């Protein structure tokens, strides 16, 4: 379709394979699948869920929210449901909100999902973007626990000065310009911003919790590009073996990267009960977030 090569993609992005959803599959279908796994692993009843937060910028429709389709799909009749739009940072926005809502005492059980089908909004004639994205979803059940475990510190931020669609975004499809459109990106600028913003965000939660980099057992950064991941790890002073990477298998699944990586890390035994994990991400907006959690 475009002038590119497997070698260029592997060298410049670290991606060697990725998943692309069939035409008749929507984001909520992936989210429901992930949510069912999370509910099973957490040994809860869907009726226990009080809030569903779905982080996505590729919703099934503008409205109803994708979260409402997820609610129907999993039979979580007692939940309030809404979407979060924070691009690739969306899942950590969801975790931050869930953490705050649970700490407020109003909620006990919140389902946070990150899911995207970017491949329906990429321009398959644009080699700058069409080689990068994968479709996928991940989900987590967040519940109150004792203070020594779970989310120890969390931070999210954004900078609307960078809400420029030439940098990263979709120019049309909303009230500014209703016609549907495809994603566009200035990859080089986004690269530089990611390498600066993710270490800064990570440092914020380390300071909040008074934890040093040496205490971290595994860093799980947003999986957009292998070179960005390695640069973020190096800037933080993390040894390479403590940086989790799966961008090679999935590409950039936007709001889903961090939760898919966390799930895989747990299944593979790379993240074990008691481990201290540092999650960090950034995305269009610009938005960013970091979470420090004890498994
Ligand atoms: N195949 C072959 N050549 C390509 C391709 C391609 N797929 N894409 C770009 N090129 C060319 C460019 O045209 C350019 O050619 P030129 O020198 O003749 O102009 C050359 O390769 C180098 O281009 P750069 O943009 O400088 O390449 P770079 O090394 O920066 O890699 C990339 C591009 C992979 C996009 C990188 O910049 C990147 O990963 N950026 C961050 C992307 C990212 O994180 N996006 C997601 C953000 S999260 C969210 O919210 C969605």
UniProtKB/TrEMBL annotation:
Any GO BP annotation: fatty acid biosynthetic process
Its UniProt entry gives the catalysed reaction(s) as: malonyl-[ACP] + acetyl-CoA + H(+) = 3-oxobutanoyl-[ACP] + CO2 + CoA
Signal peptide per UniProt = none
Domain annotation Beta-ketoacyl-[acyl-carrier-protein] synthase III C-terminal: ranges: 206-294
Reply yes or no: does the keyword Cell cycle apply.
Answer: no
InterPro entries with a match to the protein in the record: ACP_syn_III_C (IPR013747), ACP_syn_III_N (IPR013751), FabH (IPR004655), Thiolase-like (IPR016039)
What the protein does? Catalyzes the condensation reaction of fatty acid synthesis by the addition to an acyl acceptor of two carbons from malonyl-ACP. KAS III catalyzes the first condensation reaction which initiates fatty acid synthesis and may therefore play a role in governing the total rate of fatty acid production. Possesses both acetoacetyl-ACP synthase and acetyl transacylase activities.
- What is the designated name of this protein? beta-ketoacyl-[acyl-carrier-protein] synthase III
Organism of origin? Geodia barretti
């Amino acid at each position: 379709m475009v002038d590119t090569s497997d070698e260029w993609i592997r060298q410049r992005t670290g991606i060697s394979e990725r998943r692309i959803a069939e035409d008749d599959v929507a984001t909520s279908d992936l989210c429901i699948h992930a949510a069912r796994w999370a509910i099973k692993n957490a040994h809860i009843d869907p009726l226990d869920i009080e809030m569903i937060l779905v982080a996505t910028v590729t919703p099934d429709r503008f409205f109803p929210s994708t979260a409402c389709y997820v609610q129907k799909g999993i039979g979580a009749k007692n939940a309030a449901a809404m979407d979060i739009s924070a691009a690739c940072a969306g899942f950590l926005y969801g975790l931050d909100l869930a953490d705050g809502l649970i700490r407020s005492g109003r909620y006990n059980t919140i389902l946070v999902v990150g899911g995207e089908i970017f491949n329906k909004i990429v321009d398959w004639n644009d080699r700058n973007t069409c080689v990068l994205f994968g479709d996928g979803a991940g989900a987590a059940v967040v519940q109150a626990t004792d203070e020594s475990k779970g989310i120890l510190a969390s931070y999210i931020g954004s900078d609307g000065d960078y809400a420029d669609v030439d940098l990263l975004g979709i120019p049309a499809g909303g009230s500014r310009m209703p016609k549907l459109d495809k994603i566009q990106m200035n990859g080089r600028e986004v690269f530089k911003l990611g390498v600066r913003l993710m270490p800064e965000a990570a440092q914020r939660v380390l300071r909040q919790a008074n934890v040093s980099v040496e205490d971290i057992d595994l860093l799980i950064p947003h999986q957009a590009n292998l070179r960005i991941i390695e640069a973020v790890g190096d800037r933080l002073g993390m040894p390479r073996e403590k940086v989790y990477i799966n961008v090679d298998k999935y590409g950039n699944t936007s709001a889903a990267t961090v939760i898919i990586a966390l799930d895989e890390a747990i299944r593979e035994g790379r993240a074990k009960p008691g481990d201290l994990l540092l999650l960090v991400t950034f995305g269009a907006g610009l938005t960013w977030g970091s979470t420090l959690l004890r498994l």
